């Protein structure tokens, strides 16, 4: 993939015609006066950073739980890394950096404690009531569950930020109305779109697309870093991926005898650079082919315009396969996952039996009289918002035995 360095947008005021225009936003569900000092996308980003949901990410698992050590990524540090990469991609492609950063910062709001284990556990217990999807939960948080403003629930983000949150991985509905991801579109997304149509059959903006691919770049790289730190990965295992093997050869040739920590960092920084430059090169070529003249043209394009080249897509799959087999399905990790799942399952049933146990929940006085489906959704909201530490400590308070997570 050839990257055109002369076309990179590193100067001020160089927003491309296919970028989202913050001064021509489709607006908010609840109209608000404009700010004299910030664009609407800046305000969205700032609101996201100041939420309770954002702060809670610091004690939510990415891959390794807090007991494993302080140097492993959490949802918060991962989110910050994604936002940095998204902003770099947006600047290079002359997009609105604030919108790209905002979508990156909010993309993991709906994740549960204990990473994907928690999501799987909540989906299982909530399946009779519509299931659980972290992307849909992110939407619930920013449109309903954050209670900060006198005039509305949620953050009242712009249409562009909300569509980026919901569709950053592509359209949710195909041309004939079928769900593009196999399962039904999550109910919370459909319910919100009935009020504020996010156009689920189209692609999202380029700003949202760079946020999505930034997520892949970040965790592909940093899960390797954390895997090496944990000992589940070794440099020899990285040789299974030709792309990583070449990076290691390059570093060894340039810095013979380099200590392990520096060696790891040199590999990681080269991996991020190569993947970022690959996305920029692919996007430049796709933009030349599709010739979008507006953000609407991006949404109506035949394909995602900001993603990996075919060659890097192969590498991406190889890295994910390595991480899946060596880390995500490692026996120690699977044991911890089973214990974490049992904690959330126990808490769900305890709260369904006695909602008064949900101390501090703002619906606790009404929840006992709600229909079972509504009660289950509110219990799911409460559990999804927990940090790892709070879930463990709450389980210890309510049960005689709490599984060890290490």
Quickly list its features.
single chain; 406 residues; mainly alpha; 18 helices; globular
What does this structure look like?
The chain is mainly alpha-helical and 406 residues long. It has helices at 40-49, 52-56, 75-92, 97-106, 115-126, 134-145, 159-167, 187-195, 206-230, 235-238, 242-254, 260-290, 295-299, 310-328, 331-353, 364-367, 372-384, 388-398. It has a domain at 209-312. The protein is built from 18 helices and no strands. α5 (115-126) crosses α15 (331-353), α5 runs antiparallel to α17 (372-384) and α15 packs across α18. The mean pLDDT is 91. This is Deoxyguanosinetriphosphate triphosphohydrolase-like protein. Residues 29-45 have a biased composition (Basic and acidic residues). Keywords: Hydrolase. Residues 75-220 form the HD domain.
Topology of helices and strands:
Layout: H1 40-49, H2 52-56, H3 75-92, H4 97-106, H5 115-126, H6 134-145, H7 159-167, H8 187-195, H9 206-230, H10 235-238, H11 242-254, H12 260-290, H13 295-299, H14 310-328, H15 331-353, H16 364-367, H17 372-384, H18 388-398
Domain HD: 75-220
Family: Belongs to the dGTPase family. Type 2 subfamily.
InterPro entries: dGTPase, Diverse_Catalytic_Enzymes, dNTPase_2, HD/PDEase_dom, HD_domain, PHydrolase_assoc_dom
């Amino acid at each position: 993939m050839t990257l055109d360095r002369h076309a990179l947008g590193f100067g001020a005021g160089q927003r491309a015609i296919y970028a989202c225009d913050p001064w021509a936003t489709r607006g908010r569900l609840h109209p608000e006066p404009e700010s004299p000092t910030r664009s609407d996308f800046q305000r969205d980003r700032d609101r996201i950073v100041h939420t309770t949901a954002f702060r809670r990410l610091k004690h939510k698992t990415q891959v390794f739980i807090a007991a494993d050590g302080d140097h492993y990524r959490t949802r918060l540090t991962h989110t910050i890394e994604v936002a940095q990469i998204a902003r770099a991609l947006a600047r290079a492609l002359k997009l609105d950096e604030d919108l790209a950063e905002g979508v990156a910062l909010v993309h993991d709001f709906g994740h549960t404690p204990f990473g994907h284990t928690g999501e799987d556990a909540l989906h299982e217990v909530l399946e009779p009531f519509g299931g659980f999807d972290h992307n849909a939960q992110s939407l619930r948080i920013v449109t309903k569950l954050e209670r900060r403003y006198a005039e509305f629930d949620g953050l009242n983000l712009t249409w562009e930020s909300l569509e980026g949150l919901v569709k950053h991985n592509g359209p949710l509905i195909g041309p004939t109305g079928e769900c593009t991801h196999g399962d039904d579109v999550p109910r919370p997304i459909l319910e919100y779109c009935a009020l504020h149509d996010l156009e689920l059959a189209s692609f999202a903006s380029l700003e949202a697309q760079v946020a999505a691919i930034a997520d892949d770049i970040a965790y592909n790289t940093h899960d390797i870093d954390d895997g090496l730190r944990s000992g589940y990965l070794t440099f020899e295992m990285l040789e299974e991926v030709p792309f990583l093997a070449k990076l290691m050869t390059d570093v060894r040739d340039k810095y013979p005898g380099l200590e392990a920590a520096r060696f790891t960092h040199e590999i990681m920084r080269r991996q991020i650079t190569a993947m970022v430059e690959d996305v920029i090169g692919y996007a430049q070529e796709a933009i030349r082919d599709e010739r979008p003249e507006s953000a609407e043209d991006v949404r109506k394009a035949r394909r995602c315009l900001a993603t990996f080249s075919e060659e890097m897509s192969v590498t991406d799959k190889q890295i994910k396969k390595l991480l899946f087999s060596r880390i995500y399905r490692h026996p120690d990790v699977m044991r911890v996952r089973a214990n974490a799942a049992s904690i959330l399952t126990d808490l769900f049933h305890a709260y369904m039996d006695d909602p008064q146990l949900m101390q501090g929940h703002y619906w606790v006085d009404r929840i006992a009289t709600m229909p079972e489906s509504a009660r289950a959704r509110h219990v799911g909201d409460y559990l999804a918002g927990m940090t790892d530490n709070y879930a463990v400590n709450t389980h210890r308070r309510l049960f005689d035995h709490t599984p060890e997570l290490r």
